[in-house]
Structures are given as structure tokens and as C-alpha cells.
Amino acid sequence: xxxxxxxxxPTPLPVAPRVVALxxxxxxxxxxxxxxxxxxxxxxxIIVNTGDxxxxxxxxxxxxxxxxxxxxxxxxxxxxxxxRADETWQALESLGxxxxxxxxxxxxxxxxxHLERTRRLRMGQSLSLVTQHFCRAMGIGAAVLPMSxxxxxxxxxxxxGDLPFQEYFVRHQCQPKVTGxxxxxxxxxxxxxxxxxxxxxxDLVVICPSNPWVSIDxxxxxxxxxxxxxxxxxxxxxxxxxxxxxxxxxxxxxLELGITPSALAVAEHYAELLTGFVLDRVxxxxxEQIQALKVQTLATDTIMKTPLDRARLAKEVVEFGxxxxxxS
Length: 328
Ligand code: GDP
Ligand code: CA
What we know:
The protein has a single domain (19-323), classed as CofD-like domains (Rossmann fold), CATH 3.40.50.10680. 38% of the residues lie in helices and 17% in strands. The chain has helices spanning 26-38, 63-72, 90-97, 108-122, 127-138, 165-171, 195-201, 212-220, 225-230, 250-256, 263-270, 287-291, 307-323, and strands at residues 19-23, 44-48, 54-56, 59-61, 143-146, 154-158, 161-164, 178-183, 204-207, 234-237, 240-241, 244-245, 276-280, 296-300. The strands form four sheets. It has a seven-stranded parallel β-sheet with strand order 5-2-1-9-10-13-14, sandwiched between helices.
């Protein structure tokens, strides 16, 4: 019997490699979930951006870590990619009726997690410890590591002034024209426990199809992480398909920074780190220019609509990565 890739989960990888994924929120979580489907849990570490984290309503919110955890646990809202399925909004309605801020959407179920995380952080637990506890409670086997336990808030420089990331992203709906970014305090931050160890042991590092500017660059800005990534075999998956993002402002950011958004632009952005690059079939015409950067390419279907799409892409990415010769 032959497997039909459209309807059946891919068979597990024969010899399980150790994989570290770098991820932001929605795009990162999709591929991370695919990797979790095809690798044994002990072989997968996901290092997640915490540059989006902020305090709101007295609570400590970690949008990308939560998106990754909810997705891996099968709790995420499939319509949005962020937040939880079966969500209700009564707390937010009550808050709004009292004149409180409702621009950042927090559902009732989601709020429970933020309350408990904030309580634990106030007791002195580190973000990585709290995340580890939550993963265990949600039945997540892979290691989900916040990039750092030190706060490194992302600032978006715009022609209308400097904005904290969530103000730019949610309150201003990514409208102000971007001129640059700052990862505040990153130069003094330390990678969270286990991050450098996982990178040192990795057979392959996968840069998920996350926003290069505000999801992956903040991770690489933590001292020690970039050189540890660069020492490994690294494959990135393009978040830009046919010059467009699937979702979010990555394409708009490239344009506003004077770069035509494309899979090539993403490959150039990461070039010095890359061994291989995965681009969508629709961008196959760019493969030659990417190979000219001394980066090997794989063109395949990279839109992940279903859990099966995620697993199929993850398996292709890992198999491609392991085939690559690596010389650094
Ligand atoms: P955020 O933190 O929620 O903004 O999420 P990420 O930074 O992890 O992901 C945002 C990026 O994911 C966007 O640039 C999207 O184009 C990309 N993305 C979302 N879904 C997909 C998908 O199915 N395939 C690919 N290739 N990219 C995706
Ligand atoms: Ca994010």
C-alpha cells in the first residue's frame, strides 16, 4: 500500500535527529507543530521569541510562547492561529464596560494562563521554569524554551515615533511606516537554561517561517545564540511566498526598509547562517539566485493549512537539512 501524502500522516523519520527550531508566533508554531509530529519529543527543542512579551493589566503576557504552546497542545484557535479555541470574552467585556483598555484581546481561558504565569513569576520562578511547568500540564513533550529569562522588549521605530511592539502590532495594526528595530536590553540578556546546550547538540537548526525582523532577529540578538546557530547545519523556511506574507507585516517591513519582499530577500537576510533554504514552489525561479549565496535550496509546498501539511513540510525540511553537506 502506498501512502497518500494528502491524507495520511508521514511515517516517522527513521533515525531521529536532534533538531532545534527557532520560532515566533503563528508561522513558527505551525512548523514547530509539524516537527513535533515527526520527531520524538526528546529530540525537539523549540526556542521561542520573547521580544513581544509585555505587561498588560498587571499581567505578564508572552504572545509567541503561548501561541507555540497552545498550538503544540492542540488548544489553539484554528481561525486566527493565536489565542485559544472555544474562547469566551466575558472578562474583556466586563473590563470594557468599566472603561478599561480592550485593544489587546484576552479571552477568558487565555486569561487564566496569564494569571497563573504572573503569580508564579511574582513568586520568583523564572519564565523558562513556568513555561516548562505549563508544557507539562498541557501534555507537550518537546522542550519549549523562551529565548531568555531576561526581558528584552522589541521596539519598532516608525516615522510616527518609537513604539513598543504590541502598540505597533495590535493597537496601531502595523500601520506606521517602519524605519528600524531595537531589542532593548538584549546585549545584557542571557540565553535561558538549556538553549546553548540544545544548539550545541543539534544535528539541525530549523529557522521557522516566522517574521525575520521581529520574531527571529530578537532570538539571534541574545549574546551567544547567533554563533551557536552558525556553528550548526541551518535550514530556514521562507515566510514570504510569491512576494507576500501568509499573514502579518513581514512583507510590509521589508518594503518600508527599502527591500523588495521575496524568498530571496529572506535568504539574503539570513545568508551567513544558512546551509539550506526552503522556498515555495511558486518561487522556484529564485532558487538559482539563492544558490549563488552558497545556500542549497528545496522548493516545495510551504503553506500549512492543516496539521498534515505541517507534518509533511516538517519531514521534508528535516530530510533536506540532513542531506546537506555542512562545512563550518
Ligand atoms: P507572529 O509572531 O504571530 O507574527 O508569527 P511568526 O513571526 O512566527 O510568523 C509570521 C510569519 O509566518 C508571516 O511572515 C507569515 O507569512 C508566515 N506564515 C504563516 N503561516 C505560514 C505558512 O503556512 N507557511 C509559510 N511558509 N509561512 C507562514
Ligand atoms: Ca510575535
